[in-house]
Design brief:
Distance between the termini: 22 Å
Largest sheet: 7 strands, parallel
Number of helices: 16
Oligomer: single chain
CATH architecture of the largest domain: 3-Layer(aba) Sandwich
Structural class: alpha/beta
CATH topology of the largest domain: Rossmann fold
Strand order of the largest sheet: 3-2-1-4-5-6-7
CATH superfamily of the largest domain: Glycogen Phosphorylase B
Order of helices and strands: EHEHEHHEHEHHEHEEHEHEHEHEHEHHH
Strand content: 15-25%
Helix content: 40-55%
CATH class of the largest domain: Alpha Beta
Number of domains: 2
Number of strands: 13
Length: 390
Amino acid sequence: MKLAVFPLDDIEQYIKKGFVQPNYYNPNNIFNKIYIFNPSNEKEIDNKLVQSMCGTANYQIIFLGQHNAIQKILYLHKTTLRCIEEINIIKPDCIRTYGMLFNSYIASECAEITKTPLVLSIHDNYDDVRRREFKSNNIINIIFYQLWKRVFETKIITKATKVIAMYKFAKEYAMNTGAKEKDIKIIYNKINIEQFKPLNKIIPKYETFTILTVLRQIKIKNQQTIIKAIANLKDVNLILIGNGNEHNKLIKLTKKLKCSHKVTFITKVLNQNLPIYYQKSHLFASSVIHGGVGIPILESMACGLPVIHAKYPHEPKPDILSACTVMVKNTPKDFANAITLLKQDKDLYNYYSNMGIKFTELVNNKTMNKKEEILYQEVINKWIKKSLQL
């Protein structure tokens, strides 16, 4: 079987971030050929890592050109027509796309015109994205997201044969945008529990009680709250893994608070090297100002780390987090108090450690891959049956 993939971003960017999961595009090697419609100019991309994401399938990258946001709008119709031509030649059994932006609009048009089933993955709640943009006062982004919702989002989501929501907050958005509940399947992000697992007793934890945060260093990830929380705590260190346009500001903040000696910045760690940082640390902390459940949260829980997570006003009953993490107000004081409590109360520490491990055992990569494989089979078989009846 053949799959056409429309990634949200240039696949090389996922590789640079260290986000390379084996069989990411090919659960249980259901496909033998994968076509990746990559939004970049033609270039060399690490063959070994792309092959890992495609499993045993042969893959081909179709380069669509590197465009900024304005160019994407201007060339949207032209790019769509080109992709429709390619899909007509390839004749994939299914099209897979991610998110609700340009790539998914193109994928949905290809699916409709070529009569190919479409599986759409939603990793965010785009109504929530719009709320954040309104607070940012970025007029261009506010106008774009408002117009995009009015003109494109409902069309995209209703053209999908199946919608995969990565958590309940994303499912809520999908239903509000026009998807039928029967066409939505929650399949959590895949965690390889053979790779992400509790620390081997042979390897010790960091000598000093260490908080870990693995997130892009951008405004909505809000790492400054964690830095402020640990600044005056005794015998507590912080490791920040990630990069972004807030990176230098965060470094300056540690100097201003005179806690540079307690904070370690690591801009990039490959996915296969991440487990040791989780395993050697004592806690994971996330002070993000948006809803949902990030992959680092699941990875840290799989490694046995208790997680302290900020409450989010627009998600009163958060999926997973409310049961498996310590939820606190998004202030340095509340994070500091929670860190101190878990550092001192071993029973509470072990409780949240065990809760996280038990949950991630349920969403391990084998279980999630099987669910995804079944969904693909259902979508393709249903489409074949429908085609035979025409």
